[in-house]
Amino acid sequence: MKTHSPFLSSSQQFAQSLALTLALFSGLALSSEHSDPETIEPDEPLPKIYATQFQTETWGLGIGMRRGDIPFAVDNDEVYDVLPLIKYRNDYFFIDGMEAGLHLWKNDEHQINLYTRFRFVDIPQELQNKSQSQAFDLGLQYRFFHDAWEFDVAFMSDSDKRSYGYTRTQYHWESGNWYLNPYAEFHWKSSDFNQHYYGLDQYETGGGIEFNAGVKARYHLYSNLYLLGKFGVGRIDDDTASLPTLDTQYQFESFLGFGFFPDFSNTSKATNKKTSKSNSTASSGGSDDEFIRIAHGWATPSNLNAIFSWQTKTDPYKNQLTSVFYGTRLTETLFNFPIELYFTPGLVWHHDSEVQSNLAEAVIAIKAFYTFEFGPRWRLGVAEGLSYVSGVTYIEGSELEEKGYKPSKLLNYLDFSLDVNMGDLFNKPSLDKMWVGYSIHHRSGIYEKSSAFGRIGGGSNYQSLYIQWHF
Predict the structure, then answer these.
(1) How far apart are CA 368 and CA 342, in angstroms?
(2) Tens of pLDDT along the chain (471 residues)?
(3) How far is C-alpha 51 from the geometric centre of its chain's CA atoms?
(4) How far apart are CA 234 and CA 253, in angstroms?
């Protein structure tokens, strides 16, 4: 029989460190490190997969529902989260679902990374907005790869310097349309960490070691579409589990969703590799694989539905932003349609006004472009990603205050755009790589469905004009 315990209703909001973090469970790179892609024929057996190839440059975008057990002595036993997921890797950093790292040093088998990882705190949904105790913590990570095995160890700290660490062992296995990633972790947690997150600052306890194990899975459905899943179990150490605030020693966690990844199906694998190589060659000849976008926007109190129906209201305080985005192309096709995907990080400056001071914003996203001709070439664009602000803007904070929400600096990011090619419009080939357009810069908390975004509903919208140059 569960009993109520006083919950931490006054927990501090932990700074969401390094907004450039978070999406997807495992990246696929299905060629052997000992094989030449040009020599692989479609009917040949697949080469052996090595973990080092999962660390090469790749991309992914997904979304799904996470379920977590609540270990505390409360009425609700479980909590659900919607999690958008991004994956991207290059020679300098990686983003892999709920973790990210900047390479301080690396070779084919070893890495030392400046590292961040999202820490879930499973509490009842109605307490998550006020508590906002979940966060991306910062630390140092060492990784080692050997064949299909991967090992890493990290030393972490939350924003109040409560320390903890972990060691993790993973194995990458693949057959046909299936990819499985079993893992096991040992978490070492300091006494102040346990006292705050498990004792709720009401009961003293020592440090302890927590064990977690599970499996992540991915199933190829069709073309770029994959089904994602995860199941895991965690065991809290005996001393911590005996605290009056807890009523269970075990926590189960699961995830189910879908994602978009490169199509590495068996029949098209060799073709994809050769096509990728030819695209790379074309890129070196002067294609438009990268872009810079400069935009200036104006805030509006209207929601997306009103903007799309041409019923936009003007912000009486004329709050404005200026942004610069960089893009690098990931693929030229999606589901065999001419839909280009770009990984696009950006920096945004919110200008001061009579109701707010200057604020900075960082964004990471994956954006899709579809090009069509209606006279000149036009493009429709949609981006999904993450946005982190140094301080909450007036247009966002005023809406959340009316609804009774505590603001969150980290929110989901969307971008909708329409642009036209300047070379076509003015019949000047020298302007073929320039596009001018209109976009909507949107931050929101996914209708209270995600504790990663403070369990809020609402956000902010800015309408902007931009110039985008490809090179």
Answers:
(1) 7
(2) 444 443 343 333 333 333 333 333 333 333 333 334 444 344 444 444 445 445 454 899 999 999 999 999 998 889 999 999 999 998 899 999 999 999 999 998 999 999 999 999 888 887 887 777 888 999 999 999 998 899 999 999 998 999 999 999 999 998 888 999 999 999 999 999 999 999 999 999 999 999 999 999 999 999 999 999 999 999 999 999 999 999 999 999 999 999 999 886 644 443 344 333 333 333 333 467 999 999 999 999 999 999 999 999 999 999 999 999 999 999 999 999 999 999 999 999 999 999 999 999 999 999 999 999 999 999 999 999 999 999 999 999 888 888 888 888 999 999 999 999 999 999 999 999 999 999 999 999 888 888 888 888 888 999 999 999 999
(3) 21
(4) 8
Structure token pair of residue 122 = 């499973």
